Amino acid sequence: MERGPCFLGNSLGDHFGDRLRRGERRGECLGDDHGDLRGESRGDLKRDGVLCGDAFGDRKRDDPLRGEDKPGDLDRNRRGDTLLGDNLGDLDLGDLIGEYLGELDLDNLGVLERDILGERGLGDFDRLGDLDLCGRGDLERDESLGDLPLGDNFLSVVFLIRTSEKWMNTSITRLEACLDRTWEVLNSGYWKDVPIEYRYCYSLCVIVKAVLLELQWQVNAKSYADEEKKKIVLKNIINQIDRGILLGAPLLSIPNLLTTIATKLNNYCAGSDIINMEDISIDHKGTNYLISNYPDRYFEQPSMQTFYNKIFMPKLPAVLTDCMNHWKALTLWKNPNYLNKIAGSRTVPIEVGSRYTEEDWTQHLVNFSEFLQKHIITTNSEVGYLAQHQLFEQIPELKEDFEVPEYCCFSDNEKNDAESSEVDINAWFGPANTVSPLHFDPKNNLLSQVFGYKRVILYSPTETDNLYPYDTRLLNNTAQVDPVRPDYDKWPNFRKASGMTFYLKPGEMLYIPPKWWHHVAALTPSFSISFWWN
Amino acid sequence: MPVYYTGLNASPLFSDQDGIITSISHLTQIPFPEITDIEIGWNYFLLWQKTKLYITGKISEEDEKNRPCLMQIPEESSGSCKLAIPGRDSVVVLSTRNEIWKYKIYDDTWQKVTPFIPSNDNIQVEHAIKLSQAGCTVILTNLGRVFNAPLLVEIPKRVKFVDLSCGFDHTILLAENGDVYSMGMGIRGQLGHNELENCDNPKLIEALAGLKVVQISAGGWHSAVITDQGDLYTWGWNSNGELGIENKDKKVYAIPSLVDFKNDRGENIEINVKKVECGNSFTVCLTDDGFFWGCGTNKYGQLGKLQRNLENPYNFVKLDIHFSLNSETVKKFKCHEWGTAIITE
To answer: Residue A400: which CATH number?
Structure first.
């Protein structure tokens, strides 16, 4: 936890305000850079909507095909001639519909909508009201199919598309309108207060847009004969889906839908997108002599009991060594080709600028492969930091390379409910010289060093008065003092503050107790995972 | 008096053989008889025929109901509609008897808002003269007081407000003496206080103090004002160029800045701005020589056709109005949500 959060709204759950501060601080939410991210077709990176078809009421409800075909037929008919299908084998449109959306085609979005909205009236929920996901009127819920019964609007959609390119383009525009509109809501007020329904709505629109983009590609397939163009379309779809993951929320009945599709598409692209990158070079000669000033706070593979009695209970910082030797991440992640294969086509939020308290600090959404090439492998005068991002929710495959430390099972809370036992896992990946200014977080933290070296300077909460926290709402967990270049004239009491400095090496974990102030600087390219829990 | 519209459309009034036209990409006359004015919602319009108010847009499953329908306050004693403010799922209406009503669009129901403006013994009866709604409904009274319905907003002593305008999360207010105040969320620089803090009550925008502001407008996450010298100032979130500031690297402008106008050769020119209107992420202004200028997103045709072929201009560019228009015939224009309308004499 080096700092607060992307307003980006990661899909991953609502976090306490702290997380939001990171982004709200600058008012730069992800959303805002959609301009930069825009691909070839205008606006295609923003939001979406088949719903579109419906959105403004020209839904072709009387389509004669409606109700005659079944998704199975569609599947059979189309397997092999869709972009997704052709190239992904097991992920063509038919599958999207049958396997994933299966029970989620347009007609049922209305039902879904109802489920999502629960008791809330549609009337006062304009977002979905506007979207009019589909016949929200008189759908009957099919109990046997659970929350997302099957419908066949999708078929109508597909066949209509075959006959009307114009219809398709109009639909995409409407879907975009739905996405842009939802985006406005997601960016209004505080992220944590945005009703989850809008985030479901965003996810739904993204799914439908992905399907429409594929269909659009098919309609135009003759003009994009070559592989490269196909890849551009695919990457655009992946980008859409990542936006859905970042801004939307996992749908209750199919929470892995977006991540699964994105993983498959990425794997498809990765096959032909190999870049040969050398291992990330970590020159730690300069760091060998660095010795932490509290050697008695080092514990080699502490037992659960030792961790509890000497570290967790007394709430004292400590470095835990040899606890993560078995993580595959330690060897695999240094290899950029490995990371590129798993995540190369994905879109991730990065922070650019020296530190989040500075004016030049901002957040961008970037392609992961580009981030690797521009910020990690080569030196860039502009520091780009993939910071405090729930990367492992976005790309669950990476989760297989590490484990949540058992130490995280100790709780400060009496009650042991699901919420309090949840561990919030964030990735911190960047070049040398990333800095998180002195700040504190409300939760326990195990900052785990996968590769590279970091220096962490810690101050106890009792030193707060000597650190001069900002008095503004957004930055009140951040100190004005820079412990690395202290200005004693400006902050005289800082002389009295006594801190602890730790140099974290690969394979070491630092326990940072809640509310302890910490300043974190990467001495080399570095990848850390933080585990936050209550 | 034709009314022209450009931007997102959900009304069957604009249709072709394939159905409703989603984006009206240039100012187009609204095909509705005897139209005198329009209020722009996101997915619907409110159309005025003098004192009669009609609603049309994507508000019902039944296409017929999406054609213009007369909106009538159910209690005759309330009078007819005088002002109507389109919101997400409701229209707030001020009646000719100064009662406030809420019309729930999707339910097609009316609800009378319990009067909250205190009646007192003053000689002058206090009533609403202007309303604005976004996250909340803000009301200005004839006495210059402001209600964040239903609560009276604490305003500085001796300040009388004469106008107000709301963005998504903020409100700006014009005082009688030309000062501008703001309140609400400041996270994207909306408040213009040179910080990102929120503000519960109207606070003077010091950067504009000393200037006499004559007209204000807020939309989305930004605001724009005009001074008596014809200068235009903008601030807030420049997410799509809506501030008319070309720098794309910086998005948040937490302090009002004077907007430069440039000619086709990129040279700064002197210009007198007469009126400005903010949509959600675009801005349109009218200059005293009768030209319309716009900046920000034009994805759904919000700006209509531009004289230069730019998708989403970050500085003000002239709009291409291809019907005959001179400054005398323009009665007014307005931007709201994702659309722009010009009402002519």
So the answer is: 2.60.120.650
